[in-house]
Write a structure and sequence with these properties.
This protein is an alpha/beta fold and about 240 residues long. It contains eight helices and twelve strands. The longest helix is centred in the middle third of the chain and has 20 residues.
Amino acid sequence: MKPSANILVVDDEAHLAAGIAENLEAEGYRTSVAHDGGAGLERLRAEPFDLVLLDVMMPNMDGLELCARLRSEGVQTPVLFLTVKGDAEDRVRGFEAGGDDYLTKPFHLRELLLRVAAILRRSTWYQSTNTALSFGGNQVDFQTYEAQAWDGSTHALTHKEAMIMKALADRAGSIVTREEILDRVWGYEVFPSTRTIDNFIVRLRKRFERNPEVPAHFHTVRGVGYRFTPEHSATQPQQS
């Protein structure tokens, strides 16, 4: 966990926002509060935060729109959605908008604090390891989320894409299970399925492999997980 992490609470329920901020401060965090999406967006543009607790259902600009706006502007601050809508479809929309976790109201304070700590731990891991990666003519900047592929094309990675790449690169040459990736990137409550990771890998191959059908860097180890090789290494017959 980052010492004195700076957290923004965006929720139009003033009493709830104040209560959350008070409990976070009791845990040693610094907090700020905004009561609508527009105000939250202004605060996030004005100063850096380590985490945003974001209500989904707000007037004018809801949490999903705010999160999507942040990601489109290159702001990769982790987002924990808070909402009364907690079915699978709503969670999927939250992750697609760029959220990092999803907590359904009403929630227990202890669960909220655990999720906050888990997200900050993942963020600290991400920022404390290598900040750049070079492989097969590709260049990835983990700080700016910008990448240049072997063919000269440029890409803006999503936060999750960058985290998955770093999780694999940190263990280059070794097999990393899907469960390990889920734990490292999404945390202790594994909502996304292992198929979600497969889809991310397909996207990374399309961007960085010279032949995505015969990958040289992002290898699938059937029934287990993935292995990343920075140097050229064509997929073996037992893999796909």
